[in-house]
Amino acid sequence: MKSPYAVQVFDLLHRPGEMRERELDITVPEGFGNAVIGVPTGAQLHIDLRMESLHDGILVSAEVDGEAVGECVRCLIEMRIPLEVELQELFAYSQDEAFEYEVQDDTIDLEPVVRDAVVLSLPFQPVCQEDCLGLCPQCGVRLLDNPGHEHEAPVDPRWAALAGLAGETGESAEDVDGAENNGATEEKR
Ligand SMILES: [Zn+2]
Ligand SMILES: [Zn+2]
């Protein structure tokens, strides 16, 4: 099956000065992103594409619009951020190592270019809002949803551990009161 990222460019090949504009609507066949946020499989990407024929190859300029889905690294709530990524790459005719991307037959494959540009634009530490307070370290509720949330008698687990430790190493004086039981038996006559 043809990749939705593949674009035919036969009408541009070796015609320096020619230019085409196209719009692509892609249903992402395989999701991509970093560990915490990305474009999921099945998401929609809209690509405004401009292709210019040069002597060396075809210069592609594109704007990619879509949505990334992930979770806030502090409070773990699902979050969606709009994507608006611009890129520009040359797809070369020659298989010279100097060029990262090549025109293959009469086609250019935008997938690696789009993926790289989008992944680069993604935040590594996405937060639902700048002042997200995260989760309560004691009970795990989301603090933004529970303003003023606090616990009656907060017991710091470190204090609890220390208290336990002190009890264990407390001197346990050995009882040496060997109460000798002299069976004081009174002999009665
Ligand atoms: Zn958050
Ligand atoms: Zn709590």
Radius of gyration: 35 Å
Structural class comes to mainly beta
The small-molecule ligands in this entry are: zinc ion
Question: How much strand?
Answer: 25-35%
Count of distinct strands: 9
Termini Cα gap: 119 Å
Q: Mean pLDDT, rounded to whole units? A: 87
Q: Supply the number of helical segments.
A: 2
Based on Cα principal axes, name the global outline: elongated
Secondary-structure element string: EEEEEEEEEHH
Helix content: 10-25%
List the uncertain runs: 170-189
Major pleated sheet? 7 strands, mixed
Please summarize what this structure is.
The protein is mainly beta and 189 residues long. It contains 2 helices and 9 strands. The longest helix has 13 residues, at 157-169.
Report what the structure shows.
The protein has a domain at 6-121. Helix content is 13%, strand content 33%. The protein has 2 helices and 9 strands. The strands form 2 sheets. Strands 2, 3, 4, 5, 6, 7 and 8 form a 7-stranded mixed beta sheet that branches. Strands 1-9 form a two-stranded antiparallel sheet. Strand 6 and strand 7 form a beta hairpin. The chain is elongated, with a radius of gyration of 35 Å. The structure holds zinc ion (ZN) (2 copies). One zinc ion binds at residues 136, 138-139, 141, 149, 151.
